[in-house]
């Protein structure tokens, strides 16, 4: 079956239509699930573990009890026996790269003092307890474990509790367990879905409450994170995966096609877009996609994804391509042009930027070091990748001596009275009420 990925001339009308179509993929569009999610959360708040066990049986077909909900050291040891040594080796190499990258993001407390007794500063403190959600069931995502856990570990988070749905046999994928152990997870629980988010947010007898929840999941997980926000912090509401490639006539069409398909295989809602200044390249990429679809084992998912959210856009020039890329604000952006680094300087909105034909997106997913938890659905216009910053909080430090406050206290009193807050004004002036006028 030939798909012939659609090739469209880029103009203002087609750009607006594509942007509107992409927004349909946002978790915020699936409001019909909100009542069901709210019911699960309420039930877990009321009945705790009992509700967790019932939902595990209903949704995951797994019989979980108070004695089996937490993964034991014996289960982790067995997981090490089940994975190939080569897999463990690459997990450890990835950990090294991810930790090294995130170490550079660390922030430290600072203090500035002046001779008159003014001390101002900022105290940086790690969040105490973080919950990490990892998808499970039929699929296994050790890379997701590493990307969510390691920034927390680098930040100095004391307690990292992971939840992941078990298989029907009550076991967790061995690759997921090994990645969690290697990354430094302190607790692992066999529970998934909205019920896991509720347990992390409010606590049960078996799972102690956390302060922040991170990690991807299905629509139920996404909406549950949205619902509990405020009681705990969250990283983001992640949408389906996205890739956008900017390419000119110098790009290798086979590489471009392969990279577009790397995201299309995630699910039917994934988005894969090529913006090129070369109509010839556009046709070659479309042909290469057809060839790959004959051999890739998730071709049905890829076809649906490309049919719904796949585009090859032919731009008049590179400037138009860059402007459109900034409007779309893709999760992953690849640049395959003559002067790729120069193009990169003009990109304002993207989750992660991959420069050059040998910097394909899976390099960032698994190995290079930067985080693969990225803003989606255009939120790269105002959100950033998951980082060490997500696992710290900052406290302002203010210390004035009497000598420092005296010259400015009347200014503060004036400001407070201008706002009608006389108690504020009094809090300052009372310190000098015995001074001679």
TrEMBL record:
Protein name: Histidinol dehydrogenase
Active site: 331 (proton acceptor), 332 (proton acceptor)
Organism: Lachnoclostridium phytofermentans (strain ATCC 700394 / DSM 18823 / ISDg) (Clostridium phytofermentans)
Essential cofactor(s): Zn(2+)
Record's function text: Catalyzes the sequential NAD-dependent oxidations of L-histidinol to L-histidinaldehyde and then to L-histidine.
Alphabetical UniProt keywords: Amino-acid biosynthesis, Histidine biosynthesis, Metal-binding, NAD, Oxidoreductase, Zinc
Reaction(s) the record says it catalyses: L-histidinol + 2 NAD(+) + H2O = L-histidine + 2 NADH + 3 H(+)
Cofactor note: Binds 1 zinc ion per subunit.
EC number assigned by the record: 1.1.1.23
Cellular component terms per the entry's GO annotation: cytosol
Binding sites annotated in the UniProt record for NAD(+): 133, 195, 218
InterPro entries named among the record's database cross-references: Ald_DH/histidinol_DH, Histidinol_DH_CS, Histidinol_DH_monofunct, Hstdl_DH
UniProt record similarity statement: Belongs to the histidinol dehydrogenase family.
Lineage: Bacteria, Bacillati, Bacillota, Clostridia, Lachnospirales
GO biological process: L-histidine biosynthetic process
